[in-house]
């Protein structure tokens, strides 16, 4: 862990879709309201001081650069520095980082971990430990957070620290978050293993880091596949549902032109905005402890319009399909772990 006289250096290795979303969310947090932690009331400092990113190709460098430009254009004093590099610098960047995020595809995970594992001795020495020296409670292991779907924290820890998982340099967890991290509206679910109960300072910093991009929950590893289906994949499902609802009464075209045929429709963009806000309202009510069934009952009246629409959902077995969708998605997520060691991305 870093000296708290400065902010964290965060590495995002293999910055794919989720890694890029987290990067954008961290920059948005710094831009909107620079977050500080305090060793004392008179010595505030930024949570994140520097973000170093690796990608595999020149095209990916340009992709990530393009995604960060709007934030960097408005940066002021104390804004995190951002460095984007090719993947052949993974090990060197990990050496300089306080928290390492792995954001590659599951098919590229084995190669990236092998790259880091090859420098395990150097990584340990950089913290003043010999290769065979164990981390004990109260020491400062390096923190590695995997954003890779389907691969358990224990699997990664064993590869990085040896088959006996002897904690020789890396404190590993797994994070499930969504592309909504880019707008600081993700839920991040972190795998809560026994090791994290003895490293409260590291746990606090990881929690604080991901709180910059949304809300945070720690859950047992056995629940992570379900959390991935509900917290990450479901963002795509919700987007599809919102689009379908809007398309029912929305149409592409010139919203300045009106005629009798258009009376029952809205411009598609307007329909999307209305539907998305309604979905946000439903979600906010649930976050305020309103039961979904209570919301349905409050909106619906016997013989009314909402009841008529709900009957269509029932006849089409939409709700049943959504329940099955989450189960299938969770099982598919579990299957990703089996293939993560087979590909080289």
UniProtKB/TrEMBL annotation:
Domain Pyrroline-5-carboxylate reductase dimerisation: 221-331
UniProt-listed SUPFAM superfamilies: 6-phosphogluconate dehydrogenase C-terminal domain-like (SSF48179), NAD(P)-binding Rossmann-fold domains (SSF51735)
Transmembrane regions listed in the UniProt entry: none
UniProt keyword terms in alphabetical order: Oxidoreductase
GO biological process: L-proline biosynthetic process
Alphabetical list of InterPro entries matching this protein: 6-PGluconate_DH-like_C_sf (IPR008927), NAD(P)-bd_dom_sf (IPR036291), P5C_Rdtase_cat_N (IPR028939), P5CR_dimer (IPR029036)
Pfam families to which the protein is assigned, alphabetical: F420_oxidored (PF03807), P5CR_dimer (PF14748)
Gene3D superfamilies in alphabetical order: NAD(P)-binding Rossmann-like Domain, ProC C-terminal domain-like
GO molecular function: pyrroline-5-carboxylate reductase activity
Ranges for domain Pyrroline-5-carboxylate reductase catalytic N-terminal: 9-116
PANTHER family: PYRROLINE-5-CARBOXYLATE REDUCTASE (PTHR11645), PYRROLINE-5-CARBOXYLATE REDUCTASE 3 (PTHR11645:SF0)
Family listed: Belongs to the pyrroline-5-carboxylate reductase family.
Record's protein name: Pyrroline-5-carboxylate reductase
Species for this entry: Aspergillus fijiensis CBS 313.89
């Amino acid at each position: 862990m870093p000296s708290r006289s400065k902010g964290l250096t965060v590495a995002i290795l293999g910055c794919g879709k989720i890694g890029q979303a987290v990067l954008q969310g961290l920059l948005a947090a710094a831009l909107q309201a620079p977050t500080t932690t305090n060793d004392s009331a008179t010595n505030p400092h930024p949570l994140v001081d520097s973000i170093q990113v690796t990608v595999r190709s020149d095209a990916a460098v340009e992709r990530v650069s393009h995604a960060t430009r709007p934030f960097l254009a408005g940066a002021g004093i104390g804004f995190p520095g951002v460095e984007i590099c090719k993947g052949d610098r993974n090990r060197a960047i990990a050496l300089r980082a306080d928290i390492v995020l792995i954001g590659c595809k599951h098919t590229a995970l084995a190669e990236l971990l092998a790259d880091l594992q090859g420098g395990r001795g150097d990584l340990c020495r950089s913290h003043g430990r010999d290769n065979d020296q164990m981390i004990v409670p109260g020491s400062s292991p390096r923190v590695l957070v995997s954003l890779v779907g389907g691969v358990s924290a224990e699997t990664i820890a064993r590869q990085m620290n040896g088959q006996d998982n002897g904690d020789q340099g890396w404190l590993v967890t797994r994070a499930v978050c969504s592309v909504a991290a880019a707008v600081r509206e993700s839920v991040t679910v972190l795998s809560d293993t026994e090791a994290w109960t003895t490293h409260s300072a590291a746990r606090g910093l990881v929690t604080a880091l991901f709180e910059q991009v949304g809300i945070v929950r720690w859950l047992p590893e056995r629940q992570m596949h379900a959390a991935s289906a509900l917290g990450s994949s479901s963002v795509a499902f919700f987007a599809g549902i919102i689009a379908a609802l809007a398309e029912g009464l929305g149409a592409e075209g010139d919203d300045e032109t009106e005629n009798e045929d258009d009376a029952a429709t809205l411009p598609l963009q307007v329909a999307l905005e209305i539907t998305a806000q309604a979905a946000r309202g439903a979600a906010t009510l649930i976050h305020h402890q309103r039961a979904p069934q209570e919301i349905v009952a409050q909106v619906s009246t016997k013989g009314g319009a909402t009841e008529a629409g709900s009957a269509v959902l029932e006849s089409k077995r939409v709700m049943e399909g959504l329940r099955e969708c989450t189960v299938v998605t969770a099982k598919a997520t579990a299957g990703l772990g089996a293939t993560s060691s087979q590909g080289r991305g």
